[in-house]
Specification:
- With 264 residues, the protein is α/β, with parallel strands linked by helices.
- The protein has one domain: Rossmann fold (3-Layer(aba) Sandwich).
- Helices cover 23% and strands 24% of the residues.
- It has five helices and 13 strands.
- Strands 1, 2, 5, 6, 7, 8, 9, 10, 11, 12 and 13 form an eleven-stranded mixed beta sheet that branches.
- Strand 5 and strand 6 form a beta hairpin.
């Protein structure tokens, strides 16, 4: 573990992005919540970067069966302080189009069977999620991604559903009326778990299709094909973002999230 003492940054890869950093060294980490998805270790300049393909390298783990607690705990155990998560999503907002990049600022959680906290016992802990995603990381991601040729949206509410089925047109209409902009199956409880361990977390959402009711059929088959076109640009943007972020965290609510959060 000594080789990872300076692994402050992690990228969690979503559908279609499992093979970023595919030539990196693998590391298996056990946690109190089980064995995490294998971590991929890569050096960028003088920074050690951890890459975690949340569905597994062969995309074999469905969204409702991912061990989110083990994954986030493993990243915390190897010293990670900042996480950038990639999510393939469907567009609820009709202004968003296939191939767009969305940096969400808030979420609606419609999951129902996932272990969503590290704090099932005393001390009773209530984290603040008034800013669910790290504002410092969001700002840097937007600055970096806007240099690319991709169309980037700076605000969005991400809806997370349980899966593994896609949503119905009626559900999408409900989410739209509630203020949802994009929908996916893996954004939660990742974001909340990271905050519970005082880790910075921001998401980069890639729109791979329009949500149910906005097109004839929703299919996962288009995800790898579409993501392949933008994966090199996204990877480069993530690397540039990591290079630009300061090592010391001062301008976000994440690093001291447990302050005043517990009943003692």
């Amino acid at each position: 573990m000594t080789s990872l003492e300076k692994a402050k940054f992690a990228i969690i890869g979503g559908s279609g992005f499992e093979h970023l950093f595919q030539t990196a060294e693998q590391l298996h980490v056990g946690t109190p919540y089980g064995i995490a998805t294998p971590l991929m270790i890569r050096k960028i300049d003088d920074q050690t970067i951890v890459f975690l393909p949340r569905h597994g390298l062969a995309h074999s783990v469905p969204p409702h069966k991912i061990n989110y607690r083990a994954n986030i705990c493993a990243l915390h155990e190897v010293g990670v302080e900042r996480i950038i998560a990639l999510n393939a999503v469907g567009a609820i907002n009709r202004d968003f189009k296939q191939g767009d990049i969305v940096i969400p600022h808030d979420f609606l959680d419609f999951t129902n069977s996932r272990s969503a906290t590290f704090y099932d016992e005393a001390p009773v802990t209530h984290i603040d999620v008034s800013q669910p995603y790290c504002p410092e990381m969001r700002k840097q991601l937007l600055e970096t991604l806007r240099k690319s040729t991709m169309n980037v949206w700076e605000k969005a509410v991400m809806v997370c559903t349980e899966g593994p089925r896609f949503e119905t047109p009626a559900e999408i209409e409900m989410f739209r009326r509630l203020g949802g902009d994009v929908v996916g199956m893996t954004g939660m409880p990742e974001a909340a778990l990271a905050r519970e361990l005082e880790m910075c977390y921001a998401a980069v959402c890639f729109v791979f299709n329009m949500a149910a009711g906005e097109q004839g059929k929703v299919s996962p088959a288009v995800t790898p094909k579409t993501s392949t076109l933008v994966a090199p640009m996204i990877e480069q943007a993530l690397i540039e973002t990591i290079r630009a972020l300061p090592l010391v965290r001062k301008e976000c609510p994440c690093y001291n999230a447990l302050k005043d959060a517990r009943f003692t």
